[in-house]
Amino acid sequence: MKLQVFLSAFLACSSAVVASPIENLFKHRAIKVYHSKGINSTLPIWNGSNVSNATYANSTNSTTNTTSSDNSQLQVIVTGGQVPITNSSLTHTNYTRLYNSSSALNITQLYNVARVVNETIQDKSSSGAVVVTNAKSLEALSFFFSIVFDTEKPIVVTQDSSYAIPVANDKKAAKRGVLSVTSDKLVYSGVFTPASACSYGAGLPVAIVDDQEEVKWFFDASKPTLVSSSSVIRKEYSNFTSPFGLLENGVPIVPIVYDGGYSTSLIESLSSAVQGLVVVSSGSTNSTSSTIESTEIPVVYAQANTPLNFIDNKDVPKNAVGAGYLSPIKAQILLSIAAVNGVTSKSALETIFP
Ligand SMILES: *[C@@H]1O[C@H](CO)[C@@H](O)[C@H](O)[C@H]1NC(C)=O
Ligand SMILES: *[C@@H]1O[C@H](CO)[C@@H](O)[C@H](O)[C@H]1NC(C)=O
Ligand SMILES: *[C@@H]1O[C@H](CO)[C@@H](O)[C@H](O)[C@H]1NC(C)=O
Ligand SMILES: *[C@@H]1O[C@H](CO)[C@@H](O)[C@H](O)[C@H]1NC(C)=O
Ligand SMILES: *[C@@H]1O[C@H](CO)[C@@H](O)[C@H](O)[C@H]1NC(C)=O
Ligand SMILES: *[C@@H]1O[C@H](CO)[C@@H](O)[C@H](O)[C@H]1NC(C)=O
Ligand SMILES: *[C@@H]1O[C@H](CO)[C@@H](O)[C@H](O)[C@H]1NC(C)=O
Ligand SMILES: *[C@@H]1O[C@H](CO)[C@@H](O)[C@H](O)[C@H]1NC(C)=O
Ligand SMILES: *[C@@H]1O[C@H](CO)[C@@H](O)[C@H](O)[C@H]1NC(C)=O
Ligand SMILES: *[C@@H]1O[C@H](CO)[C@@H](O)[C@H](O)[C@H]1NC(C)=O
Ligand SMILES: *[C@@H]1O[C@H](CO)[C@@H](O)[C@H](O)[C@H]1NC(C)=O
Ligand SMILES: *[C@@H]1O[C@H](CO)[C@@H](O)[C@H](O)[C@H]1NC(C)=O
Q1: Whole-prediction pTM value?
Q2: CB 294 within 8 A of CB 274
Q3: What residue owns the CA closest to ligand 5's atom 12?
Q4: What integer is the mean pLDDT of 136-152?
Q5: Ligand 2 mean position to 74 CA, how many Å?
Q6: Residues 30 and 143 in one domain
Q7: Domain shared by 340 and 279, yes or no
Q8: Considering only CA atoms, which of 112, 124, 130 is closest in space to residue 46?
Q9: What is the three-class DSSP state of 353?
């Protein structure tokens, strides 16, 4: 490997987690003012009139057979990332652009994208959905969708639509929950999407897309335990799959912070400004002596290291919850969805987190 390549790869990996010291949160003290009741979307209502039959995959013609025999449509929703579009009409693929963002989508935007994807997959004529997003949002978006969508239709999140379309069109993609396709053509369960290109330990891929854009599955179809039909999330928190809690509880603010020795009064004053906190567990797996805990807001400890580490409830302060195998960003998403649905008690969160 060339030194230059190695260096840039190293730098990209060293900034994998977006966390800040707690003090920085106070620079945005007025943030709670924006904690709006009700989701005020600036998106146009998606009613089909705005879609174009854009086509893809100029480079290969294996996608010409993208539609299944019943002529159903694959919808592609773009929020950022790479979309190779040509004028030639190759596929029966419908395409809609929502955002063209290069920064990480926030929870409001995630719910907005979910609403559009939901309308798409509820439509009988659609065979599934592909959502194209930027690298920073891939993990959050695919984990978020894994929780809020309980559907048999394939939903595939990707940075590059040309890899994801063959996956979404593959009959064996159904009944696996939400899938993500990384830029190295590996297919992951949305629950286990790697935190960044560098962290292969985050989850085992379930398939690979070959050069002929055929999908080679590694396993038979099954859903991750976290969201399987017998999971606590599906059995007891069916309201996680609806956005209606946003009307009651508003859009939550759940920052990710580094662990450190903070005074209890600092944490207490913070709890009036946020709806939850994800603490990046420092060093070893035992954070029981950390000072970050609260009786007012949920505090979840998550590990950012690879290979994967498990943060048990015994590894964290008394009033905090361990994120199990979830990364900080995944813990932030799950805590946000719980907050939207008014689920904030330690005992409830302990049953939801792995
Ligand atoms: C939502 O948008 C409408 C129209 O722009 C505005 O009248 C209303 O005040 C907004 N609601 C909130 C909660 O921001
Ligand atoms: C669909 O959206 C377009 C533009 O937003 C609007 O002009 C049109 O009236 C809408 N059609 C329906 C059926 O809602
Ligand atoms: C829909 O079409 C209108 C009018 O052409 C345009 O202003 C708007 O940005 C489009 N919305 C999307 C999501 O493409
Ligand atoms: C789809 O593409 C065909 C051929 O380019 C064009 O005739 C047709 O109007 C397009 N349909 C839509 C909805 O854009
Ligand atoms: C795209 O999808 C919309 C809504 O499902 C549908 O009305 C439209 O005909 C589709 N476009 C093409 C070109 O098939
Ligand atoms: C499809 O692939 C075949 C074999 O590689 C090639 O001969 C043909 O020109 C391609 N067609 C298109 C439309 O790209
Ligand atoms: C597309 O499907 C037709 C009929 O099912 C088949 O004959 C043809 O070889 C397929 N083309 C490609 C490129 O797979
Ligand atoms: C297909 O892609 C090649 C290289 O990316 C480009 O030169 C060519 O013009 C494209 N063809 C069409 C029809 O867009
Ligand atoms: C999410 O991002 C949008 C656009 O940058 C912004 O308007 C909105 O206030 C943000 N929402 C939250 C909850 O941060
Ligand atoms: C999707 O739509 C269905 C039917 O309208 C609704 O019950 C469900 O809550 C929606 N889910 C999301 C995530 O918006
Ligand atoms: C964590 O560390 C504390 C103090 O160092 C110790 O008492 C406790 O047993 C440790 N917990 C675990 C689960 O190892
Ligand atoms: C969602 O469901 C949980 C468990 O049934 C319940 O405790 C919570 O209050 C519900 N949230 C809303 C907003 O109804």
Answers
A1: 0.71
A2: no
A3: 53
A4: 93
A5: 21
A6: no
A7: yes
A8: 112
A9: coil
